């Protein structure tokens, strides 16, 4: 099970969460990564935690101002990147281009999607993983794995029908170890979460609870 | 074979092209449609030709200014809609939403894509057809069916692997009956074209040449 | 006073509202215009009412699929166009380009903006008018001219400081003749409204009430 | 005179350019800043050079994935930010929002624009400076201050008419000390440049040439 903590633009200290995540990963043996803002990638990577970008642009070196270039993200220490998060939707051709950019520099990739049809579409583009996150559950604290288990099993099936080497993660509303466990039972091999850790008073305790059943 | 003529924002008379297309369709028995600007849908539909929108938004009735609502497009007489043309790229979730909007009002749909991977992704969303149009060939007069035949056969295979009820059309550089014939031989069941007809001195003659081998 | 009725993507009959607006304009002598979806421009213009587009793109004739070209909007009978509505925000350079496109074909222009600073910015681009519409009041039924009169007088001052030939209209929450009157007292020379007429059971009665104090 | 070096997504070593810029600033007394990708802000700031972001989003803390938050950019050491560069155009309301975000954390701001009208519009939003960069000259090596001197003097006048506390910089094609000098003579108080330094074999020598006449 892979636990990916998206720090979004939350007012947390990214290094503090990264250190907590690193310790929990070391202590539990569970793979845990942290995805900060681009400006914090270097500081987060220096903690030793697995580090993800929240986005990279479908671009190569060149005249592109205000972009997020895969090469610089990788140089700052990132190991992977989210793409097409519901808060950063991309055009179909851009997802394809960003996947190429990520692959060029060896970043792992997770493409987010709303529903099983979009999961299948995303899987057809060849990412390492897709994540199903029904938008109506994001930020609710109601885990998709409980509120709508069919959407997870349908996503697992839809991705496998297109390309069975693509992992399926599950996001939206995940905040406890129990949620992670039910996601695993439905066939997800990872979870995306955000506020449950990034806004916790004690991020380390929140992460320990999350990985406890694993 | 389906021949879809995209008028883009060309300085042609949309009604004149529509009348020519209608006559050629009647005389040849080939299915020919014309896709004008939204403001011209009603006038084009009144010629009796099969009429397509160039785009509809992923929206339902509501507070949306400056949008193209599927309901109004259908009311104006449209039979179908292009989506995700390389000159009007959509986010993955928007393609999904626009397909739902089109289906709600009974519009046929063609989702455009750059390459076989994107064709597979588009097919996973359940349109009536996908169209493969390598961007580097659009507007060149060099037909994809000759310049890069593999991209057409790969697109046909990629779509069939995901959903074999989805037709595959072929765009970019198509302008003669010969181009249409080679597209059909590669497995395409339709062609998208634009300047070859819309900018022709004699659109009817251009269309007659196109459908001649069919 | 200019009364501009934006039909957005509401489920009204655009021709019915257009006919009502035309009659009220004839009977009252007040300038009243209707802004339907692009696909309905021709049918609305045929009623004889002053007809506005909800948007035109910053483009000239050419290879632009799914766009709204000023030339086709004007050909369909439009007299003017809204630009940068809060539901169709444009880039600064696009507003500039859409104003050029509108001017090229003789369309009147109103550029919408959130606040007096943006009103001044819009006025600097040389439209016929700007409209101040605080986003938090759009669709509320609480008229900006009453809820926040300072925003209207500040917008009038801000526009005049940049270019005193630019009219200032007032939108957001306008639905009664009383609202229109207070807008006029604050220096606005026009009002934008939408649901108050488009969603009324009797659009003609709603319009008669609106123009009654004028 | 302020010299702002935009590293865009060029394949340079941002720290090497930053160190060169810092030395030239120290040696010449000229204000020189470097604008790297967000992921490189921290490393660039650590060289001691004045550091600028290439963009910040019109957002506050919250659920925003893949964004560039002013707070994190400032925390990484940025002193200012470009906005609305021709390679990263923003909506009018977004420029307003990004200026608020930058002001909230004390970042200096330069809003880019194509022509004197857009310069006036940008000045109305209250940035520290505007930059006029005719898109047709960007990356050409033909300096706007020589190819089209009127556009610079018109921009200076247009900004002053709206708000005379807003500085006017000049970009597009600037690469030599001579270009900088002619920009200053036309009333610009700063220059934006990119490839002339970022792609130079010897960035320090390129910068020394640039500041030589100052």
How does the SSE layout of this entry go?
The structure is a homotetramer of 214-residue chains.
Chain A: E1 2-6, H1 14-28, E2 31-35, H2 41-45, E3 50-53, H3 70-75, E4 80-83, H4 92-104, E5 108-113, H5 116-123, E6 129-132, H6 144-147, H7 149-162, E7 167-170, H8 177-185, E8 190-193, H9 195-198, H10 203-211
Parallel strand pairs in A: 1-2, 1-8, 2-3, 3-4, 4-5, 5-6, 6-7, 7-8
Task: Summarize this structure as a short list of keywords or feature phrases.
homotetramer; 214 residues; alpha/beta; TIM Barrel; 8-stranded parallel β-barrel; 10 helices
Give an overview in words.
The structure is a homotetramer of 214-residue chains. Chain A has 214 residues and is of the alpha/beta class. Chain A has one domain: TIM Barrel. Helices cover 41% and strands 17% of the residues of chain A. Chain A is built from ten helices and eight strands. An eight-stranded parallel barrel of chain A has the order 1-2-3-4-5-6-7-8, surrounded by five helices. In chain A, strand 3, helix 3 and strand 4 form a beta-alpha-beta unit. The longest helix of chain A has 15 residues. The first copy, chain A, starts with a strand and ends with a helix. The model of chain A has no long low-confidence stretch (mean pLDDT 94).
Tell me the strand percentage band of chain A. Answer: 15-25%
Largest sheet of chain A: 8 strands, parallel, barrel
Q: Give the spatial strand order of the biggest sheet of chain A.
A: 1-2-3-4-5-6-7-8
List SSEs of chain A in N-to-C order: EHEHEHEHEHEHHEHEHH
Count of helix runs of chain A = 10
